[in-house]
């Protein structure tokens, strides 16, 4: 029997990711990484069946296979080149990773240290600059720490709302940083002066812990007023544990306590 | 004369012989997928230097960086997917051994290929606005729309510069000897654009077949390259190894791990890997790869 008494942090994260896609309607839900993929598939099986999902390669999925499994039914073709067309078209919500996120919701996946000669070279900016000025963008951070949440990112790959506004209407028109989901909490970027704002803390996590793990002031004046992230429903728990991730791959990102 | 177009078949060495130091070379595929690795290996072993590479980067960038061939690199990412960070690329960046770095957004990269393929100086795009891509690349300019938007604003967009190439190198599943070529996997990537963005394009392939063979069991839409875009064709079976060449073969994950471990390791580790796999010609590489696979299956 699936029990709601032993809900893990990973289960809470999956539901929080799903909630980020709940109101999106019939758009391409584009997850980067395991937890975003699990959450998007959970959303399709619960809150938003109209979501369009891909296999992360070139196929749109007709069904909702478990994470890591091959498609059973295919409903379309989305080779890499067409992703750029969909970004232009706008009907897409991508959830990317983030090696750094700063106070203003800028994201870095390019390099740590000076760009000319980085201390640590990362992936490169990939599609983050275009995603963030083209379609809705969220971030998933599996290990919330002051090394990730920094005052200012070393390289701006993903563009937060303040920088988008500074860059002009063409940049801000479709800039839509929707949610930042971490292993501790959920945020948006609608704080004062376009800053990261704490929306909820996961069950068992205090606001003080989240602030401690964040390298900038979250500006929470009344910690008691910060809600708890909802726990998954019994139906969601069954979907997460028995349908979408029976092998427990999610615990590689967010270990069971 | 019977109207038969010319035979463009070449050897790997003949292709490399067409290249010159200082050239701008575009490499097709995507990350660790369908890369013309046989040609890349041959370039790494050649005396070519000071290359400008334009690539959706994978081990092609890593190998050529490690071989000291790159003067300038134009990329949006370099990754091996299952090994997210390409260790030879990381090493080159962290040691500052690539003199000129042009990191741009993927959409800008696509727009730049499209512009070059259409002989346009640039194409407008939003991607890059507000990001450090424009800070690190002051040569990339913006352009103001001559048309007002619904609010009367003339938007200022990025003018993604054309990625003009001297040479394109791509790997396809099948080709005929004239340069028509098809992909049989799920994704064409951008290989047609690379060829059209280049003065000359060379195609390596798993198998050269008759022209009729290109469509005998495959929809014509998969014939991505037309011969007018192609200057030379080389048959290099397993030539995309260790990247994917779906459905002929998938990525050799075990080999990729060995590559990444050697690249991350000491100079001696890399020297040993290089000596075993990369110091000879393509035939000796493939023989070494077979021996490596046999070891694993014991």
Per the principal axes of the C-alpha atoms, what is the gross shape of chain A? globular
CATH class of the largest domain in chain B: Alpha Beta
**In DSSP terms, counting alpha (H) and pi (I) runs of 4 or more, how many helices of chain B?**
10
SS elements, strand count of chain A:
14
Q: Report, as a whole number of angstroms, the end-to-end distance of chain A.
A: 20 Å
CATH superfamily of chain A: Glutaconate Coenzyme A-transferase
Write structural notes for this entry.
The complex is a heterodimer of chains A (257) and B (298). Chain A has 257 residues and is of the alpha/beta class. Chain A has 9 helices and 14 strands. Chain A has a 6-stranded mixed β-sheet with strand order 1-5-10-12-13-14, with helices on both faces. A 3-stranded antiparallel β-sheet of chain A has the order 2-3-4. In chain A, strand 13 and strand 14 form a beta hairpin. In chain A, helix 1 crosses helix 2 and helix 2 (34-45) packs across helix 8 (234-244). The longest helix of chain A has 12 residues, at 9-20. Chain A starts with 8 loop residues before the first helix and ends with a helix. The mean pLDDT of chain A is 96. Helices cover 32% and strands 20% of the residues of chain B. At the A-B interface, helix 3, strand 9, helix 4, helix 5 and helix 6 of A face helix 4, helix 5 and helix 6 of B.
């Amino acid at each position: 029997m699936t029990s709601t008494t032993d809900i893990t942090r990973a289960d809470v994260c999956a539901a929080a990711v799903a909630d980020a896609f709940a109101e999106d309607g019939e758009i391409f839900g584009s997850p980067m990484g395991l937890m975003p993929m699990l959450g998007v598939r959970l959303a399709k099986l619960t809150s938003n069946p109209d979501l369009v999902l891909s296999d992360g390669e070139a196929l749109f999925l007709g069904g909702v296979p478990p994470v890591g499994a091959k498609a059973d039914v295919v409903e379309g073709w989305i080779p890499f080149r067409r992703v750029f067309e969909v970004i232009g078209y706008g009907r897409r919500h991508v959830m990317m990773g983030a090696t750094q996120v700063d106070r203003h919701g800028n994201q870095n996946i390019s390099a740590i240290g000076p760009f000319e000669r980085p201390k640590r070279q990362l992936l490169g900016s990939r599609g983050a600059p275009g995603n963030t000025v083209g379609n809705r963008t969220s971030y998933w951070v599996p290990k919330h720490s002051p090394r990730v949440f920094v005052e200012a990112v070393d390289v701006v790959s993903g563009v937060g709302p303040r920088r988008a506004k500074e860059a002009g209407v063409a940049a801000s028109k479709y800039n839509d940083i929707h949610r930042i989901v971490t292993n501790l909490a959920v945020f948006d970027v609608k704080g004062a002066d376009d800053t990261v704002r704490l929306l909820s803390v996961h069950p068992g996590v205090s606001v003080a812990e989240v602030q401690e793990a964040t390298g900038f002031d979250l500006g929470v004046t009344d910690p008691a007023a910060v809600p708890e992230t909802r726990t998954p429903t019994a139906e969601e728990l069954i979907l997460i544990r028995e349908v979408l991730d029976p092998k427990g791959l999610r615990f590689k990102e967010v270990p069971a306590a | 004369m019977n109207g038969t177009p010319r035979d463009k078949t070449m050897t790997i060495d003949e292709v490399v012989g067409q290249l010159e130091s200082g050239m701008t070379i575009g490499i097709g595929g995507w990350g660790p997928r369908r890369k013309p690795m046989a040609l890349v290996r041959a370039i790494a072993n050649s005396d070519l230097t000071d290359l400008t590479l334009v690539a959706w980067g994978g081990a092609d960038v890593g190998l050529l960086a490690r071989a000291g061939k790159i003067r300038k690199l134009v990329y949006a990412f370099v990754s091996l997917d299952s090994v997210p960070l390409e260790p030879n690329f990381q090493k080159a960046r962290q040691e500052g051994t690539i003199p000129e770095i042009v990191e741009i957004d993927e959409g800008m990269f696509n727009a730049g290929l499209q512009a070059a393929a259409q002989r346009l100086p640039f194409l407008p795009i939003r991607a890059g606005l507000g990001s450090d891509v424009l800070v690190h690349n002051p040569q990339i300019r913006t352009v103001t729309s001559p048309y007002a938007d619904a609010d009367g604003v003339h938007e200022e967009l990025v003018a993604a510069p054309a990625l003009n190439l001297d040479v394109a190198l791509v790997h396809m599943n099948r080709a005929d000897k004239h340069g028509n070529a098809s992909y049989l996997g799920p994704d064409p990537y951008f290989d047609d654009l690379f060829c059209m963005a280049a003065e000359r394009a060379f195609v390596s392939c798993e198998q050269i077949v008759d022209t009729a063979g290109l469509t005998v069991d495959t929809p014509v839409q998969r014939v991505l390259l037309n011969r007018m875009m192609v200057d030379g064709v080389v048959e290099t079976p397993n030539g995309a190894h260790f990247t994917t060449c779906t459905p002929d073969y998938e990525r050799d994950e075990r080999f990729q791990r060995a590559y990444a471990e050697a690249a991350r390791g000491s100079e001696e580790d890399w020297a040993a890997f290089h000596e075993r796999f990369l110091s000879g010609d393509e035939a000796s590489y493939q023989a070494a790869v077979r021996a490596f696979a046999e070891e694993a299956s014991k």
